[in-house]
Amino acid sequence: xxxxxxxxxxxxxxxxxxxxxxxxxxxxxxxxxxxxxxxxxxxxxxxxxxxxxxxxxxxxxxxxxxxxxxxxxxxxxxxxxxxxxxxxxxxxxxxxxxxxxxxxxxxxxxxxxxxxxxxxxxxxxxxxxxxxxxxxxxxxxxxxxxxxxxxxxxxxxxxxxxxxxxxxxxxxxxxxxxxxxxxxxxxxxxxxxxxxxxxxxxxxxxxxxxxxxxxxx
Length: 217
Ligand SMILES: NC(=O)c1ccc[n+]([C@@H]2O[C@H](COP(=O)([O-])OP(=O)(O)OC[C@H]3O[C@@H](n4cnc5c(N)ncnc54)[C@H](O)[C@@H]3O)[C@@H](O)[C@H]2O)c1
Hints:
By secondary structure, this protein is an alpha/beta fold. The protein contains 9 helices and 10 strands. Nicotinamide-adenine-dinucleotide (NAD) is lined by residues 73-74, 94, 97-98, 101, 146-152, 169-173, 202-205, 207. Nicotinamide-adenine-dinucleotide binds at residues 73-74, 94, 97-98, 101, 146-152, 169-173, 202-205, 207.
């Protein structure tokens, strides 16, 4: 029976799923590098999220290891060349956080538009300064999306539902993808920045939402 080390905290439902699938599960999140190094030697599979670094040093003696699964989008915390040298397959779950990330983007955009953070602090100080924190409506404003991949597209769909205009920059995406979504594909990043009230970036290695501040509290 293949043995799998869960090296980061995973929900009980996921652990049960693996057990029910007939795997021998070693659930040891939070191991220090020395113990992790020992633990990976004794398993065929390792599952990580983002709390564990599977470096070349950690993988050095892992001769039984066949597969590493990153329960998340990127594989930045796995030394891919080291894993490949050992013939270990590295997998991820690319779509897992798409909706959550798109929704979180809107949490940030709405919080910026309605000054939720500063208004909360002000109210905790016992003030009731409604006018100062009114902010702006999203409807009719323009959202610039840099990177029209899985997350960018989910953000675009939500922006359209809010009545926003959407302009995107993604040099690697086909025009018909943008057309199908009902968004404009700009030729350059500069074109996006020129017309956008909000810009949200969803390219590898960079996730951020910024806006022109609606007011200066
Ligand atoms: N922080 C988080 O919680 C979290 C969660 C999920 C994803 N992410 C990260 O968000 C990023 C995007 O995720 P995704 O699932 O949408 O990926 P994806 O691969 O589906 O989309 C990325 C898009 O970026 C485009 N792109 C690449 N370089 C670009 C550039 N220079 N200019 C404009 N566009 C460019 C690609 O063509 C692609 O369409 C990934 O790097 C991922 O690691 C972070």
